[in-house]
Amino acid sequence: MKSLRGKILLNDPVQNKSTAFTREERERYGLQGLLPYGVTDIQKQQQRVLANLRSKSSNIEKYIYLNDLLERNQRLFYRILIDHIDEIMPLVYTPTVGEACVKLSHIFRKPQGFYITPEDRGKIVSCLENWPETSVKIIVVTDGERILGLGDLGANGMGIPVGKTSLYVACAGIDPGRCMPVMLDVGTGNQALREDPLYLGYPYPRLTGQDYLSLVDEFVAAVRHQFPDALIQFEDFSSQNAFALLDRYAGQVRCFNDDIQGTAAVTLAGIYASCRITHKSFADLKIMLLGTGSAATGVAELLLPAFKAVGLSEAEARSRISFVDRQGLVTVAREQIKPRIRPFAQERAPVDFIDAIAAIRPDVLIGATGTAGAFSEAAIREMARCQEHPVIIALSNPTSHTECTAEQAYRWSEGRAVFASGSPFSPVMLGERVYYSAQGNNVYIYPGIGLGMIVSRARLVVERMFLAAAEELANRVSPAEIERGLIYPDIARVRDISQGIAVRVCQIARQDGLTGEDLSADLEVNVQALMYEPGY
Q1: Which of 17, 62, 137, 164 is catalytic?
Q2: What is the rounded CA–CA span in Å between residue 521 and residue 427?
Q3: Is residue 318 scored above 60 in pLDDT?
Q4: Is residue 164 annotated as a catalytic residue, yes or no?
Q5: Which single residue of 133, 206, 498, 525 has CA 20 to 30 Å from 279?
């Protein structure tokens, strides 16, 4: 890293320490007169930042403030995010990032990440050469078409890869210089955005078909050329494109889709952990999914090998998984069924959602609809009638789009539900008892996958890595947390969890012959040694 001086040093977010520069450093780097007299350490700086942050009246103001901090003092930003992750993560990612994406063109301060548009066709490699870092290992890319449950936000969706890369750093210790957020700005189908005079994206209808695929092909090829060791994480693509791109590249490129595979792994982990509360065997569970998009489909497709691993046949495993959509239970009698959903179609009479619960009596109900209130009072009450401790997992975020709230799940089940959600909820008081709910956040999974891929240099990301990640996460839920009804561990332990997942990824890479690296040494020590720890 080159040595900077004076105002240039203070304006560099990577090397700036602001008031933490010592007297000797101020003299050495030409900072005399450019800083106030007081020298403060990073702990004192945190106190000041937190006081300012907590004085803000809205979460979007806090988001803007934290992004400004990231752009002026990178180490201080990550130190605060790590040390206060339960408070800060909801501000830099879900649920606040949803509002930030909606408003991104209006609250724009400074460019973050890397943008590619159709006008860059034929020159993406040379464009990537403009990125200041050369040792990129993690790329989070979106095309903005399906941002959380908010739909097509075009280039405003850049808030998602920016947020995800910050969590790679905080939750898995991956050096910020190795992370790259990317927006494939291929236009938008959101006419209101295109007509917004402040919109900063490519203001044309969204690219589709072969034109779209050829641009993504060029991007992937350019990444392999410019950053050959990089892992590509696809994020918030439409269901159709999410599966199409995953199928297109998974066998030849280091890549995965977080909405499909990350969501599946974190959901599976929650189901595993729930068995310790309900005292049921995983092999005996029946699981119902509301929604047939990429998240729900990904969960179902990971449940299959999980069920088979405990002794079920392929047919038995499929029979334990059912789908419900707006038309009701997905059955073989339907003429039109999505190809990936068809194998799970039930050989039953078509019925609506509530009657499907009554007929199948699922142990676990999972929502991945992006529709607020999709878990109605009748649905939760029917689950509670069928099961002593119904497991309710409402995956959709942000909070305004969740299938039901924690309070609704507990109240309508008379306090018997085991509840988790994609967005955080405060504890709920019913009578004299406090009910706690866990957040099934993909941040428990993808940072550890990425860290393991960096350490192992595995050629591909494979299904077994997500199964192992789910097992590792479930095993990290403590007995005390199980006692409180939680199916995910305290987020404060996420770095340790990511380290454990990374070790499992390395072991699978070695077992499956996916790496030429010598991984025979103490993997836990090697993984930990690689993890970035921000400080001065």
Answers
A1: 164
A2: 43
A3: yes
A4: yes
A5: 498
